[in-house]
Amino acid sequence: MSEHPVGFANGLTNYGDRDFSLYLRRSFAKSMGYSSAMLEKPVVGIAYTGSGFNNCHRHFPELLEAVKRGVLAAGALPVEFPTISLGEVFLNPTSLKFRNLMSIDTEEMVRAQPMDSVVLMGGCDKTLPAQLMGAVSAGRPAVMLVGGPMMTGRHHGERLGACTDCRRFWASYRAGKIDDREINEVEGKLATTAGTCAVMGTASTMACIVEALGMVLPGTAAIPAVHADRLRAAEATGALAVRLIGSKLTPDTLINEKSVENALRVLLAIGGSTNAIIHLTAIAGRAGVPVSLERLNVLSDTTPVLVNLKPVGNGYMEDFYAGGGMGALMRELKDLLHLDAMTVTGETLGQRLDIDCGDWVDRTVIAARGEPLEPVGGLVSLFGNLAPGGAILKRSAADANLFEIEGRAVVFTSLADLAARIDDPDLDVEANDILVLQNAGPHSVSAMPEAGYLPIPKKLASKGVKDMVRVSDARMSGTAFGTIVLHVTPDSASGGPLGLVHNGDRIKLSVKDRRIDLLVDEVELQKRQAVREKPPAVPERGYARLYAREILGADQGCDFAFLKP
Ligand code: FES
């Protein structure tokens, strides 16, 4: 038997007799119909996340066939295995709670099963970060294949795509501008194909980030889910996974200071999702690379927004792909990127960008450096006595008229309180108040849901108020927009000052100074601290208990303490 085992001879089950272990494994593998010749081949594992609870991965059976074709043609044996799949809107209380569980599943199954390299098939918001976190920790050769975005639908001649338009129509419905009949009609037109949300939401942002990190084939992040190019990318990814066998280009080496900074530049230039800061922090953290919010501000001030997609701009992901995609974008950013960062194909980023792709770029979608959509990046971090560990504002999706204001706090102490009172006609709220949501951070029982996009109270929405400053320790969907301060750290449930805000307090936001402050004196804050509620009890058992004991703050990517390197 070989001294350097490959494929099914790898990582044998331990019975105390290696040859018996291999004989037994091959016997059982033969029950799946493999020939002896096939069982001699190296194995490419395929982490498969098709699920009836994940609409975004509906096309994965077809993609899987294409990956397998690529693996077989390149001379290895493809073997898919299931892992947890996280369909964003099907999980309670929120998908983020299970991202780390999926990362553990991915890491352990990649490490424990006999594969020489692995293709990670993901797409919906939390799946890509979970898979990459797991792959970094597993340290095996790996390449990612993203599922790709949905195509748009049509309503009364207008293009619609999940899910910025979902929110826009819902806001119109709340404001009484459209009726029950129309909102029901729109419901069937927002998500009309397989694939991830059609705008630059979290899934698309993460797809662009994994390309900036060098973890996918070049030019593949934005290919629509149902496009034939997506299948060709899947086939080529399978072939690449075979070339990766024995390679030292493992994810833990590809994720480093340079590639992470490239990813941050891309995140800023695409006006990407705030969630990506949490995920990138967690991914980089697995490789021992810190992501500093102060550094984010430095990069943000020197990175223009170039991509004109919803929720910040006008277009959809299908336009981004047709307009030149990630290659065109990164060529515009070339002087800001670390071009010597290595990628999974063995080329540097600079070599990837030097490949001639023709020079046509749709400038309505990807702006030239000299004519940016915004001269500075889409995200900024804020500090101040309300967020000593930092907070995030997506300034590109916010109303600049609200950037320098002081207002009265209207406080909701939990999601339940928000739901119960936000539309109360007697709610004491004015358009220039600041809405505050407490106890929706990673340490809360709600596990940091995408609830930071607090609805405008109905009594104000019906008068035409479209935006207000909203502050919380929650997250926001990448498809949402507004002047919304998120990820306030430390969060209320872990004892952060956000939990000390009372109705009627004054809060000052200054985007110019990168600060958010509670204008209450220290003595009063100490009094409130002395009588504040105890943190939620740790659940008795199961994953909820593990989560409660191990979860870290947003500044640590909401990873688990015991999963850090
Ligand atoms: Fe899956 Fe939006 S719901 S990407």
Measured as a percent range, the helix fraction is 25-40%
Mean pLDDT: 96
Q: Describe the strand arrangement of the main beta sheet, using strand numbers.
A: 7-8-12-11-10-9-13-14
By secondary-structure content and strand pairing, the structural class works out as alpha/beta
Q: Rg from C-alpha positions?
A: 24 Å
The number of helical segments is 20
Strand content: 5-15%
Q: How would you name the oligomeric state of the polypeptide chains in this document?
A: single chain
Most strands sheet = 8 strands, mixed
The tally of structural domains comes to: 3
Which residues sit in consecutive blocks of at least 5 with pLDDT less than 50?
A: none
Bound molecules: FE2/S2 (inorganic) cluster
β-strand number:
14
Measure the end-to-end span: 35 Å
Task: Report the principal-axis shape.
Answer: globular
Write up what this structure looks like.
Helix content is 34%, strand content 12%. The chain is α/β, with parallel strands linked by helices and 565 residues long. The chain has 3 domains: 274 residues, no CATH class; 34 residues, no CATH class; 155 residues, Glucose Oxidase, domain 1. The strands form 3 sheets. The chain has an 8-stranded mixed β-sheet. The chain has a 4-stranded parallel β-sheet with strand order 2-1-3-4, with helices on both faces. Strands 5-6 form a two-stranded antiparallel sheet. Strand 10, helix 18 and strand 11 form a beta-alpha-beta unit. The site of FE2/S2 (inorganic) cluster (FES) has 9 residues, from loops.
